[in-house]
Prior knowledge:
Blueprint (H helix, E strand, L loop, with lengths): L6 E6 L3 E6 L4 E5 L4 H5 L2 H5 L2 E2 L3 E4 L4 E4 H5 L5 H8 L1
Antiparallel strand pairs: 1-2, 2-3, 4-5, 5-6
Pfam family, one: DUF2442
Protein name: DUF2442 domain-containing protein
InterPro entries: DUF2442
Amino acid sequence: MTxxxxxxxxxxxxxxxxxxxxxxxxxxxxLAWFPRLMKATPQQRQNVDISSAGLHWEDIDxxxxxxxxxxGRGDLTLTAQHAA
Length: 84
C-alpha cells in the first residue's frame, strides 16, 4: 500500500525547509540537502509552485517530490554526479 501526501505550504528558516502536508503533517528538512535552495534568495525560495507531484522552483530549476522527502532523500543530482 502506497501512502501519498500533497503539500499545501512551504516555508523556510535559516537552515531548514518546512513543508506542510494536507493531512496535517509537517516535514522539516535541512537546506543543506538541496544546494540550489540553500544558495537561493528568500524571494526565489518563496516563488514555489506546489502541485500533486511536489514542489517546483522555476527560477532556480529545482524540483522536489513529496515522496522523496518522506523517504528522506535529498538532492539526487549530487548522487548522479558522484556516480558518473
